[in-house]
Amino acid sequence: MADESAGPETLARLLARRIVMDGPMSVGAFMAEALGHPRFGYYMRRDPFGSGGDFTTAPEISQMFGELVGLWCIDSWARLGGPGPFHLVELGPGRGTLMADALRAAAVLPLFRDNAIVHLVETSPSLRERQRQTLHPVLGDAVYWHDRLEDVPDGPTVLIANEFFDALPIRQVQKTNYGWFERLVDVEPDSTGDDPRFRFVLEAFGSSGNRLVPDVLREAPDGSVVEVSPASQAVARLIGARLAAAPGAALVIDYGYAHGPAAGDTLQAMRRHAYAPVLESPGEADLTAHVDFAAIAAAAREGGAQSFGVVEQGEWLTRLGIRQRASALAAKASPAQAQDIRGALDRLIDPSQMGRLFKLAAFATPGAFADSPPAGF
Ligand SMILES: C[S@@+](CC[C@H](N)C(=O)[O-])C[C@H]1O[C@@H](n2cnc3c(N)ncnc32)[C@H](O)[C@@H]1O
Predict the structure, then answer these.
(1) pTM above 0.90, yes or no
(2) Is the pLDDT of residue 150 over 60?
């Protein structure tokens, strides 16, 4: 780690210097810096979506996804009593495509559109600009951006979050024959300050590991790795508290497991649509982990909301009528476009593609959906 001066600053160099000074960092701290460092974080400087980027998300695959989410929002709002002005909130809106498609579908109920105050919770300046461009034709300047959900004003809320929770930091703990130890990120001792390489190590004393591991997994076999996401739980608790304080509903869509907590290392890096080593180039690859739906539902209930689900994405989209929507679009399309629509439909609902891995949970003001659960649940 001797020479720090050669070459331009990179996130790898910056993190390596910090580790040399302060000691190994948690996987969560590494992930938070890799994705959200104000200068070098993955999301801060680029548009990672689509064929030229690193990955594709459901709203980028087809307009049908955002349209059906929009109809879910309308239905939920109506069943909340159609509150006058209300906050339509999206967490982690990417390119703004989901919100644009949802609002277009919402044109069927002008009262919903007229009363919706759109708030986007987004930390990336470059994606905020991209969202502004996408939404300007639909909303003009009537969009509010926030760094954190805490900053969205109180009041009736309909909230959506697609592939937001999988980007929130996780911490990992590992079972050894001396108990649970937190996994940390250290610098390889033989790497240089110019070109640092990182490795996983275990904390020295097991104090964090023993505290973080969920009780039901405490007796897992030696070598097991368990992930917890205090950051995700904090956001879910906040959503729950919002929905307890004023009428509202929230829809969380993500990839993950329904019946957690589960043992397993799911941290992954994606670069140019392929998996990459997770510690290889912080800030240059997307880092995500499977969402523990049971944990975020528990946190939302702790916050005061009622929870619904989990439902698999293929099932939910089918219940909301995606097949009929695809047929209607295909009937007006050229043969090539109709084939694209059918391809997109398969990608979204087929169990071997996104249909099973991606799941949905809904949260709502207790009692607001007493007659029947939110649409699709
Ligand atoms: C995987 S993208 C999902 C984008 C979009 N929802 C979609 O489906 O295409 C994650 C989004 O969350 C944003 N994001 C990540 N971490 C965040 C945080 N801690 N606070 C707010 N936004 C965050 C990213 O900048 C990006 O817009």
Answers:
(1) yes
(2) yes
